[in-house]
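User: My notes are a mess, but here's the protein and zinc ion's SMILES. Can you give me a structure?
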Amino acid sequence: MISLVILSFTVKKNYTSASTNSFTKTINTIVIDAGHGFRCENGCRHGSTGENITEDQVSYEVSKRIVAELKKKYPSVKIIESRPTPFFVENRARAEFANKNKGDLFVSIHCNFVPKIRDVRREGTRTETKYVYVGKGKKRKKVKKTITVPVYKTYYLPNPAHGTETYVFAAHKTDDKEEIIMENGDIFENEKDDSTINNNINDPLIKQQVALWTKQFFANSVKLASMMEEEFTTLGRFSRGVKQRQKGIWVLQATAMPSILIELGFLSNSEEEAYLLSEPGQQQMAESIVKAISRYKELVEKGAPQPPVNNGKR
Ligand SMILES: [Zn+2]
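Assistant: No problem, the inputs look usable. Here's the predicted complex:
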């Protein structure tokens, strides 16, 4: 909760030696973000739809299980939900919620979907009767002609795409992330001693520090994402790896903290849909996610700086 404030002190006090040491901090607030949601105004669900369950339902159920497991494991860590009910929440509101609550980590839960594969096959021939003109000038006349034409049929085949994926913000969207970190200068507003920080966001040294945070947020997001995929593999799931989406992912760009987006599996794949629909499947995924969060937490907190010592200068 106060960790970014602590870092802002580091900026002020140590910015002349902008540290490139590994980004260590205490994880005090974890934001769990259940993707999509039910839109009551038009009675439809936002997100992809499998045969028997929708993405917003799976993400909601799994998120609730993650929250329960995290609360059990870390009673002193604030575990908050950006979509606490089955209902839809706009992306902007999700990111604002995470930033306002000074999240140290943002984990968004989704499911994948791909359309069936369209396959057009030639299946025999049929005859067609046509009238065509033959000859020229006065000899030109219309004659009946029978021709043979191929017959095509379209099939939609199950798409074999399956497995888990974890996304981190796209490197080319780094500017967006920096801007958000800048805009969220008010994260520091509670620190009365450090009131100058907001006025200094154009200071090149502060800018440099923000760029460093962005880099560290990226590095830490990749670390956490890799741990997620490792846990899924341990569980026996097929991992499609850690990815970046070219078009960018708003909630990942707009959160001033390390953030990842997990695709639990493909609802277009009947086996994975059945797994994600099942209670054991949902529980296993939630537990693996919590395991990865714990490993990440341990890693970043190892050697985390203690709150600034009151050395009489503050
Ligand atoms: Zn989604």
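The pocket of zinc ion is lined by residues 35-36, 47, 55, 110 (CB under 6 Å).
User: Great, I'll file this with my notes.
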